[in-house]
């Protein structure tokens, strides 16, 4: 049996077990990771490399930074300021999505989510709204906001590099032609209907982290509260100016976490407790599956097979739809960055073979690859909130699938207008 077939079997197993949820998500993830090693699909070093992935390091660092912000009661105080303006749960959801979406256009979508998660938990704590009804809109907005600019998501830059290799390039705000309308439609959808699909607190599974304790800010010295805020703000600024200062996001996060412990804002024990290990094992384990899909050729096999159904002379609308959907489906089981990296060379080959505009094909690929709304493993930010929100796999499916449907409708209208495959 080939490595690609074995990988596809493990993919089906993971999907079934994630939906069935008879085993914890992190355990299923680790079974897949170990299985890929035992069957020879991946070498142990490759299978476990996800646990030292830069996103995992960022998770750990920002769990500590966010934990301090929450533990000192400062997140609760900031949340109180927000709740003065947002008088209802729906207004709060809109405010969270709007701020997150706009920030994500200029800070990485993962970095934006990492920074705002403790703030949103503070808002939930102060307002009395369930955090489970605020954190999913947060990560969905982060994903949509990543399509507002060239630097909003790693996949955007992957496509840019591919275009530049053939003498073309996207403009800085060119992604916003479809990204901004989608963000607006997503916010409107959750304000009017989507909030009904968000899980309520009674269905959440509590996790044993700092975020599950009510902060006693009266017992915390004021200097610790302000120190947690200052370090968070400095960490955010370092992330925003990542290219200028030359320090990667995850390193900035680590510096912030270290400073919190060195200054005594958090104890070492509190820092350890703030790290959600379910998230680490889930994300680290599923990165092995993403690696196997890419290196075994299974992902390309699926993409080629589906695209081949279009025939040798497909209509522009059908081709747009198929490429968008292939990226959309794969991105919910691989990381959005891995999906884009996998499909970009395939998309360029399709453009060359059919004489289509490479920018149009790549735009459909990148936008489709950002629609990682239906699973907790499609985007790092989705995984980050699974413990804090107490989410189950089906919570993502129920809230995310309608958003994917909206993304399909919006992009099938706008992509042919702004990026026709065969411009006249």
Structural write-up:
The protein has 424 residues and is mostly helical. 71% of the residues lie in helices and 0% in strands. The chain contains 22 helices and no strands. It has helices at residues 3-20, 25-38, 44-47, 54-71, 74-85, 89-104, 109-127, 132-145, 154-164, 176-192, 222-240, 242-245, 249-262, 268-274, 277-295, 298-308, 316-331, 336-354, 358-369, 380-384, 386-389, 393-418. Helix 7 (109-127) runs antiparallel to helix 8. The longest helix has 26 residues, at 393-418. It is globular, with a radius of gyration of 21 Å.
The separation of the N and C termini measures 47 Å
- How would a textbook summarize the main sheet? none
Q: Residue ranges: pLDDT <50 for 5 or more in a row?
A: none
Helix tally?
22
Strand content: under 5%
Chain-averaged pLDDT: 84
Sum up the overall morphology in one term: globular
* Strand segment count: 0
The string of secondary-structure elements, in order, is HHHHHHHHHHHHHHHHHHHHHH
Taking Cα atoms only, what radius of gyration do you get, to the nearest Å? 21 Å
Summing up helix and strand content along with how strands pair, one would put the structural category as mainly alpha
Into which percent range does the helicity of residues fall?
over 70%
């Amino acid at each position: 049996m080939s490595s690609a077939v074995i990988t596809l079997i493990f993919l089906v197993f993971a999907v079934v077990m994630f939906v069935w949820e008879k085993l914890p998500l992190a355990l299923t993830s680790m079974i897949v990771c170990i299985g890929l090693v035992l069957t020879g699909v991946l070498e142990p070093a490759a299978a476990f490399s996800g646990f030292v992935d830069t996103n995992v390091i960022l998770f750990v660092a920002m769990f500590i930074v966010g934990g301090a912000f929450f533990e000192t009661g400062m997140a609760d105080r900031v949340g109180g300021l927000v709740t003065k303006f947002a008088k209802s749960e729906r207004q709060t959801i809109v405010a969270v999505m709007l701020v997150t979406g706009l920030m994500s256009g200029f800070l990485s979508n993962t970095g934006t989510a990492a920074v705002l998660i403790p703030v949103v938990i503070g808002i939930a704590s102060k307002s009395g709204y369930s955090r489970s009804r605020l954190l999913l809109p947060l990560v969905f907005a982060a994903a949509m906001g990543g399509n507002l600019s060239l630097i909003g998501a790693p996949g955007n830059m992957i496509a840019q590099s591919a275009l530049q290799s053939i003498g073309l390039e996207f403009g800085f705000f060119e992604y916003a032609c479809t990204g901004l309308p989608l963000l607006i439609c997503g916010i409107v959808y959750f304000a009017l209907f989507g909030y009904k699909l968000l899980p309520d607190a009674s269905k959440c599974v509590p996790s044993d982290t700092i975020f599950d304790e009510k902060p006693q800010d009266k017992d915390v010295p004021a200097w610790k509260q302000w120190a947690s805020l200052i370090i968070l703000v400095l960490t955010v600024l370092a992330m925003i100016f990542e290219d200028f200062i030359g320090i990667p996001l995850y390193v900035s996060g680590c510096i912030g976490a270290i400073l919190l412990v060195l200054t005594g804002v958090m104890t070492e024990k509190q820092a350890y407790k703030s790290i959600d290990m379910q998230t680490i094992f889930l994300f680290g384990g599923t990165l092995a599956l993403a690696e196997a899909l890419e290196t075994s050729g299974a992902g390309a096999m699926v993409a080629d097979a589906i695209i081949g159904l279009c025939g040798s002379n497909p209509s522009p609308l059908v081709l747009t739809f198929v490429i968008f959907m292939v990226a959309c489906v794969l991105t919910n089981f691989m990381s959005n960055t891995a999906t884009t990296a996998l499909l970009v060379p395939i998309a360029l080959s399709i453009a060359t073979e059919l004489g289509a505009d490479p920018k149009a094909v790549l735009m459909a690929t990148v936008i489709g690859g950002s629609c990682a709304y239906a699973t907790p493993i499609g985007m790092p930010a989705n995984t980050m909130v699974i413990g804090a929100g107490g989410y189950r796999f089906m919570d993502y499916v129920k809230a995310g699938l309608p958003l994917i449907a909206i993304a399909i409708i919006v992009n099938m209208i706008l992509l042919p207008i702004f990026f026709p495959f065969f411009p006249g």
